[in-house]
Design brief:
Number of helices: 3
Largest sheet: none
Number of strands: 0
Protein name: Orc1-like AAA ATPase domain-containing protein
InterPro entries: AAA_16, P-loop_NTPase
Number of domains: 1
C-alpha cells in the first residue's frame, strides 16, 4: 500500500501542474456560483439595486478572513455592471 501512495505522489509531482484550470488559482478568480451564499447574495442584491434606479445606497460587508467577502462583492459588482449595461445609465441622483 505504501508503494501505491508513493507512486501516486511521484506521478503528481511529475505533472506540469496540479490544476486542471490554472486561472482558478488567480486571486481575481470568482466562481459563477458561491456555495452556501444564496441568502447573502439576495440581501446584497436588494441593497445594491436602488442605485441603478437613481437612489443612493451603501453597504458595509464584514466578516472573518477567508469567508468570501471579496468573492461576493466581485460577483455582485459584475452582476450590477451587466445589468447596468442592459438597462443603460441610471437616472441622476435625487
Amino acid at each position: 500500500m505504501t508503494s501505491d501512495v508513493m507512486k501516486m505522489f511521484e506521478e503528481e509531482i511529475e505533472r506540469e501542474t496540479v490544476f486542471e484550470d490554472v486561472s482558478k488559482a488567480s486571486p481575481d478568480y470568482v466562481p459563477e456560483r458561491l456555495v452556501h451564499r444564496r441568502e447573502e447574495e439576495e440581501k446584497l442584491r436588494d441593497v445594491l439595486e436602488p442605485p441603478l434606479n437613481g437612489g443612493p445606497r451603501g453597504v458595509l460587508i464584514t466578516g472573518p478572513v477567508g469567508v468570501g467577502k471579496t468573492a461576493m462583492t466581485s460577483k455582485m459588482g459584475r452582476e450590477l455592471e451587466r445589468k447596468a449595461g442592459e438597462e443603460g445609465p441610471p437616472p441622476p441622483l435625487r
